[in-house]
Amino acid sequence: MNVLLKSATIIDSKSDFHNQTVDILIENGVISQISKAIKNSKNIKEIHLDNLHVSQGWFDSSVSFGEPGYEERETIENGLRTAALSGFTSVALNPNTNPVIDCNADVSFIKSKAKKHAVSLYPIGSLTKEGKGIDLAELFDMKQAGAIAFGDYKTSIDNPNLLKIALQYASNFDGLVLSFPQENKISGKGVMNEEFTSTSLGLKGIPNMAEELQVARDLFLLEYTEGKLHIPTISTAKSVELIRAAKQKKLNVSCSVAIHNLILTDEALTTFNTNCKVLPPLRTQKDIDTLIEGLKDGTIDMVTSDHNPMDIEHKKIEFDLAAYGTIGLESAFGILNTHFSTKKTIDFLTRGKNRFGINTHEIAIGNKADLSLFNPNGSQTFTKENIKSTSKNAIFENHETKGQVYGIVSNNKLVLN
Amino acid sequence: MSELSVNHLLGIKYLNKKDIELIFETADHFKEVINRPIKKVPSLRDITIANLFFENSTRTKLSFELAEKRLSADVINFSASQSSVKKGETLIDTVNNILSMKVDMVVMRHPNPGASVFLSQHVDASIINAGDGAHEHPTQALLDSYSIRERLGEVKGKNVVIVGDILHSRVALSNIYALKLQGANVMVCGPKTLLPKHIDKLGVKVETNLQKALNWCDVANMLRVQNERMDISYFPSTREYTQQFGVNKALLDSLDKEITIMHPGPINRGVEITSDVADSKQAIILDQVQNGVAVRMAVIYLLASKIKQ
């Protein structure tokens, strides 16, 4: 693929062209020239887009599609298309499938489905066989097939000894272990944050402590094992403090936060809107303020949309019975860019790749073109029209968003809205 | 003519003070009607009401049915345990099937909090919440306040303690909202395991000593322990619960003043309340039941008049 991006403002603090508006010539998927007003002597396809901005390709560390087993929620094909049109060039795929991805063949299946796509798909293998939390899955073998990390998605590892062994075992081959932060006996039958709102709605609450106990436990196990741990989607102020202290002690820990947990409080549930039923649950403004602080000071390594397409049959029902999860790829940029500066938004969206062993590509001549294309200005309301996913369970439906995603250049392909 | 600010009765928290006053004034009229030799009025002759009970109920269901019949509405009843609905049909489909037979109003009891709110968002009928999980039971709270007003003249300024299993109680939540709206002072009392951690944020006092609570109050509303909603034991034994949170005659006699005792039923005699208290003149438990019919007639009548428009 050869393409000439005309008049693009580069947002990449690592690049020599940061904040410059230039033409970018891409030949065979590689950036061959960056300068003002490149002459198009080879008659290469030119891209002219209003107020075009370009950054390193965005990465999402927690995405679910559903294939195999839940194709009615989302397929890999349409999921990747959604990611591309939402500006993401790399996504880590949760084993949120049926059967779960817990062996070499499963990982290979996912990889083969994503081959030749503009978006790079990185499977996360299940930590335990069938995701049951009893015996370790063949982690090394899955890594050979391309799994970048291992975790049981939103199923907590109840048995601390199992996590101890997993952290020890995976450290043999520098494997990254994911542990979902929720102590299930404390969360009980809770379906939302335990606070004023849950009390007023009569819904069972999940106290912050359910998360913090698990985070504290996991950090103890990490200190003992000297393994490599990633805690996906934290949601409470105290979790930030615990992880901050662990990082000061040089423990090998990272964590992420879901974008909706950064923006929305549990008050969003007052109409029993099941699209706001997410795990970890939406918390309070105090938690949000501390999460943002943690994200800015690097305690929290990355943001994620925690994209989880869910069919309407699991959402248009009574709140207690509805499934958890929201889609988020489509709204990720527009929501972040509304609540943070564009500079911060791009910083958040490009973090975390290294932790998962994924190469980054600065915007420089001779480097692979791994680019997200967007316009940081202009506002619009996020509606069903903006949803590319098969499922329409969007927590940010009817929210105002700022900016517009044009598409991506990645894997020698150009995808535009 | 005055009318309600809402098209459904989903919970007390969706009402305003004027709504409650209007319901009580209308209930005064119907209370007079149901004590006449001819207890029926033709007000709702062209209205059809479906009583959908997805959870067991005896008193509430009978009370609603009687209220509907006294207003001359056509009534159909549907009872199903949640499990039979789970065989496949969704709540919306079940209700829409019934509505397609030209039903104007739905009275629903359901085990899940927010079920009536959810239904009101998706079907075209006036909805009355007859209890949804641990969320709200608005007609119970209305009849409780109505009964306090009847016994003590007014609700405003009265000290009301709700005793027992607050954690699993829709009656408690609706009562808190209703009493606060009318200017009463509200306290909850029970073992800490059965008090929601953040209940004080609803503007109520919290007390774990029953003697202190009773000394403070004008009215004690004794709730039943909802064993069927508990996933684990919240106290070691009924015996211990009664020792700490059961009201008996000796306890009442030890107080400085004569307080009013209420109970939404069904009573567990000897557990939260002894027989001599339940049957005493301080208790207005059977008045509550009678007022339930009048208050429900008022609610149905007022909502139906909005449908007619």
UniProtKB/TrEMBL annotation, chain A:
Domain Dihydroorotase catalytic: from-to ranges: 58-237
Cellular component, GO annotation: cytoplasm
GO terms for biological process, alphabetical: purine nucleobase catabolic process; pyrimidine nucleotide biosynthetic process
GO terms, molecular function: allantoinase activity; dihydroorotase activity; metal ion binding
The keyword Isomerase is annotated on this UniProt entry: no
Keywords: Pyrimidine biosynthesis
Entry-linked SUPFAM superfamilies: Composite domain of metallo-dependent hydrolases, Metallo-dependent hydrolases
CDD domains given in the database record: DHOase_IIa
The UniProt record lists the keyword GTP-binding: no
UniProt xrefs under InterPro entries: DHOase, DHOase/Allantoinase_Hydrolase, DHOase_cat, Metal-dep_hydrolase_composite, Metal_Hydrolase
Protein name according to UniProt: Dihydroorotase
Organism ancestry: Bacteria, Pseudomonadati, Bacteroidota, Flavobacteriia, Flavobacteriales
From TrEMBL, chain B:
Domain Aspartate/ornithine carbamoyltransferase carbamoyl-P binding: 8-150
Keyword Transferase: yes
Aspartate/ornithine carbamoyltransferase Asp/Orn-binding domain mapped to chain residues: 156-302
Assigned protein family: Belongs to the aspartate/ornithine carbamoyltransferase superfamily. ATCase family.
Gene field: pyrB
Species this protein is from: Xanthomarina gelatinilytica
Catalytic reaction equation(s): carbamoyl phosphate + L-aspartate = N-carbamoyl-L-aspartate + phosphate + H(+)
Function comment: Catalyzes the condensation of carbamoyl phosphate and aspartate to form carbamoyl aspartate and inorganic phosphate, the committed step in the de novo pyrimidine nucleotide biosynthesis pathway.
Assembly behavior: Heterododecamer (2C3:3R2) of six catalytic PyrB chains organized as two trimers (C3), and six regulatory PyrI chains organized as three dimers (R2).
UniProt-listed Enzyme Commission number(s): 2.1.3.2
Identification of the protein by name: Aspartate carbamoyltransferase
Sorted UniProt keywords: Pyrimidine biosynthesis, Transferase
Positions contributing to carbamoyl phosphate binding: 59-60, 109, 137, 140, 265-266
Organism superkingdom: Bacteria
Transmembrane domains' residue ranges: none
UniProt signal peptide: none
Record's keyword annotation contains tRNA-binding: no
GO biological process terms, semicolon-separated: 'de novo' pyrimidine nucleobase biosynthetic process; 'de novo' UMP biosynthetic process; amino acid metabolic process
Pathway: Pyrimidine metabolism; UMP biosynthesis via de novo pathway; (S)-dihydroorotate from bicarbonate: step 2/3
Listed GO MF terms: amino acid binding; aspartate carbamoyltransferase activity
Positions annotated to bind L-aspartate: 87, 170, 224
